[in-house]
């Protein structure tokens, strides 16, 4: 059995705990032996209490230690580990492998997905991006990742940085645009629910078309009259700036603005 310990108790950690437990229940060779959390109550409802610790010195020996904490805490957490020459990885999309402490062998185990509490995800469909310092450690990471996901990739730190930036555009920024759309609807007493089929179709369309092929709308058509009408309608200066910036970007189709 490959023994795994997760350090952290936030969204990513909780989803990883659930994924490893499901995998173990299906008879995989991966065993989640322990979780470290300063707030033990965060995970006590999804894991046996005897597998949870808030004491660094109580960490048991394992083949892999997964640090699933906020980006700015990774270096500090890795420096507190009370052992040497074990395989320690983090789950961040934007933090370099080198942020981990030199006392241990380093790697990255990055599940590229947005995680929210109480929102179940199918981990089998989530891409996991792996990086390590040597081939032997990569083989172990690959085996662990394939126990919970069908989409596993070797991605170095520079590539992962690019992926994370791209993910911010297609996820975080897009969700912010949903929020703006929702606020515009609320302001004019229109149910946001009406837009959900359009949102779903937009997401489904890029599964069969490239984003460039899927692009529609007044900016793509260079429909000046509609664009000017929209700009006149938007009284919120922030929304107007975003509208103008995105319209110009679509019209230039990726060229320098």
Please provide a written account of the structure.
The chain is 43% helix and 16% strand. It contains 9 helices and 8 strands. Strands 3-2-1-4-5-6-7-8 form an 8-stranded mixed beta sheet. The longest helix is centred in the last third of the chain and has 31 residues, at 157-187.
Strand content: 15-25%
Rg from C-alpha positions? 22 Å
What is the average per-residue confidence, as pLDDT, rounded to a whole number?
Answer: 93
User: Distance between the terminal alpha carbons, to the nearest Å?
Assistant: 55 Å
Q: Which spans have pLDDT < 50 for at least 5 consecutive residues?
A: none
* Series of H and E elements: EHEEEHEEEHEHHHHHH
Main beta sheet: strand number and arrangement?
Answer: 8 strands, mixed
Number of helices: 9
Question: In one word, what is the shape?
Answer: elongated
Instruction: Please bin the fraction of helical residues.
Output: 40-55%
The chain-level structural class is alpha/beta
What's the helix and strand layout?
Blueprint: E1 2-7, H1 11-25, E2 30-36, E3 52-53, E4 64-67, H2 74-79, E5 87-90, E6 105-111, E7 127-132, H3 135-148, E8 151-154, H4 157-187, H5 196-205, H6 211-214, H7 218-221, H8 224-233, H9 237-252
């Amino acid at each position: 059995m490959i023994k795994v310990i997760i350090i952290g108790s936030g969204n990513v950690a909780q989803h990883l705990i659930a994924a490893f437990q499901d995998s173990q229940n299906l008879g995989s060779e991966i065993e989640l032996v322990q979780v470290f959390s300063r707030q033990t109550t965060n995970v006590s409802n999804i894991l046996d209490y005897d597998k949870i610790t808030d004491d660094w010195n109580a960490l048991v020996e394992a083949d892999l230690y997964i640090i699933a904490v906020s980006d700015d805490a990774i270096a500090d957490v890795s420096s507190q580990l009370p052992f040497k020459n074990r395989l320690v990885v983090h789950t961040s999309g934007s933090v370099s492998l080198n942020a981990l402490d030199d006392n241990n062998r380093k790697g990255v185990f990055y599940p590229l997905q947005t995680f929210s509490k109480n929102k179940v995800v199918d981990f089998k469909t989530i891409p996991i991006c792996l990086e390590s310092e040597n081939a032997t450690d990569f083989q172990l990471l690959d085996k662990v990742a394939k126990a919970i996901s069908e989409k596993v990739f070797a991605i170095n730190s520079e590539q992962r940085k690019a992926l994370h930036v791209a993910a911010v555009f297609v996820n975080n920024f897009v969700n912010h645009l949903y929020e703006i759309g929702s606020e515009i609807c609320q302001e004019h007493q229109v149910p946001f629910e009406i837009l959900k089929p359009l949102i779903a179709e937009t997401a489904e369309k890029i599964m069969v078309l490239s984003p460039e092929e899927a692009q529609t709308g007044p900016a793509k058509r260079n429909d000046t009259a509609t664009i000017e009408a929209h700009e006149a309608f938007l009284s919120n200066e922030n929304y107007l700036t975003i509208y103008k910036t995105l319209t110009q970007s679509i019209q230039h189709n990726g060229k320098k603005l």
